Structures are given as structure tokens and as C-alpha cells.
Amino acid sequence: MFRGRKLKIFSGTANPLLTEQIVQHVGVPMGIAEVKRFSDGEINIYIGESVRGADVFIVQPVCNPINDNLMELLIMMDALKRASAKSINTVIPYYGYARQDRKTRARDPITAKLVADLLTAAGANRVIVMDLHAGQIQGFFNIPVDHLLGMPIFAKYLEQKKLGPAVVISPDMGGVTRARELAERLQLPMAIIDKRRPEPNVAEVMNIIGNVRDKTVVMLDDIIDTAGTMTQGADALLEHGAKEVYACCTHPVLSGPALERLAIAPIKEIIVTDTIPVPPEKCLPKIRVLSVAQLIGDAIIRVHEELSVSKLFD
Q1: 91 near 124, Cβ under 8 Å?
Q2: How far apart are CA 293 and CA 300, in angstroms?
Q3: Secondary structure element (H or E) that encloses residue 166, with its range
Q4: What is the SS3 assignment for 9?
């Protein structure tokens, strides 16, 4: 438990329950802050305690409503900077706009870079994120970025389930590195779903690269948004002889038709984390939520004490 006096952790309104669990693990009280909205929608932040000379950490995933939560984070950072905080460290468990990380057509914006610029301009000295959709987003910043991984949390949970003959699946080519790391940790083989995406939020399964027949399959992705990738992937895997399907994802966005699709999908268990809050109305019986509070709390302590964050994943 941390006992330092100059470490303060504040929460935005996006995921206060996660922040409460983080401060309990770190062993410091929650920073006093009040978030109000005027009748026209403007956000007003009041910091209710001195932060002069403190290392301040703000926990705020940029999840739905994305624009409101992002603006709230920027305004809180500005308030803390003007209150003479020694350092402002933004803890963003879910980095919204991460999927707009490059130009795929003429005149496309690179919004992930724009968000990085906004955070830096608002006064961030460091950013702590979890499972970025694209690792190169770290290079969009000119300040330190600590990239935390949810994969070890999934590995620990899956080891306890003793799945028997199993294989780890990447639902697309972009997730191969993530799936390989989980497969190596679990000492399992890996396979890949080869798909194409004709337009955003629309996936079309092409074929399965690897052997899944008579095996338990673990699909690993960073985001479940509309759940098209996961549900179509599960159907294709069972058609290719898989025994049963588990799905793992760090960020349960669960927008649009996701819940309806997952409810009827042939997936035995959907394992997610609490980087984004999963309200009771979205907690299907097959959804299992694992906490990232201890991991983020340990990262905060290590950053504050100037220790290596990468040691958390050894």
C-alpha cells in the first residue's frame, strides 16, 4: 500500500467505480473534484483540494459519450495545471478514436493523432493507456506513454479454467501479435481468421488459417464494438469443427446491435475488462468482467516512484 503525500488520483465521470478500486489498491484517498454541466451543455470543473506540487493522475476512459468524456478530461487537466500541479498524468484505460490512426482514403483525418495533440496541449506530462488499437499511436505523442496490456489478465483467468486441447485465434491479421503473446503465455498453438472489412463496422469472414477441429477456441481482440467480428468468427470456427468458443476483449464498447448478436452467438463465455463500464443492462449471463484496477494502480505507483512499468509484465 502506498503512503506518499504528493500523489493524488482524480476521477472523471466516465468510470468512477474503476477509479475507486484503483485508489483502494494504491492506498490514497480519491481526489476531490466536482463536475457540473450548465444548461447549454458546457462542462465546469471544480477541484476541491490543493494540488500544488503534487503528482496528479486523472482516470478517464474516452468512451461513450466519447466527445463529452474527452472534453471533460481536457478541462480537468487545464484546471489542475492552473492549480500548480507538479505533473499531470492522464490515465486513459480506453483511448477513444484509436481506430482512426491512419489515412485509408484521400482526405481522411487522423483523429487519433489529433486527440494526442489535444492531450499534450492541455498539459499532459505523461499518458497511461491500455491495449491501444494500434501500437503506433504511442508515436503520436512527444511525451512518455506507458502502454499497459490486458493479455496477462486474460491469461491468468484462462489458465484457471483448464480448457484442455485449445487454440488461440486472432480474429484478423492486425491482431496477430496480441494473439501470439497470449498463445505463448498459455503454451498453445495459434490460428488466424482471414477477413476483409468492406466498410466500417462490417466484417466478412473469409477463411480460417490453422487447425481448430475438436479444439476449444479462444478468440482475442482489443475491442468488441458492434460484435460482428466476434459473432461471425464464432460461426466460422464452429463450421470448421471447433468444439467451443470463448471470446476475450479488453474494451467492451458494445454499441448498436452488439448485445443482440452476442446473446444468440455460439460463444460459451465473453471475457472483458472494466476499462469501460459495463452497466447492468449490458451484463449478459455469458459476459465475465475482469478488473484492471490492480494493474493500473501498480502502474501509477511505479510511475510516481520512478520505477520500471515494464516489470509488471515480466
Answers
A1: no
A2: 10
A3: strand 166-170
A4: strand
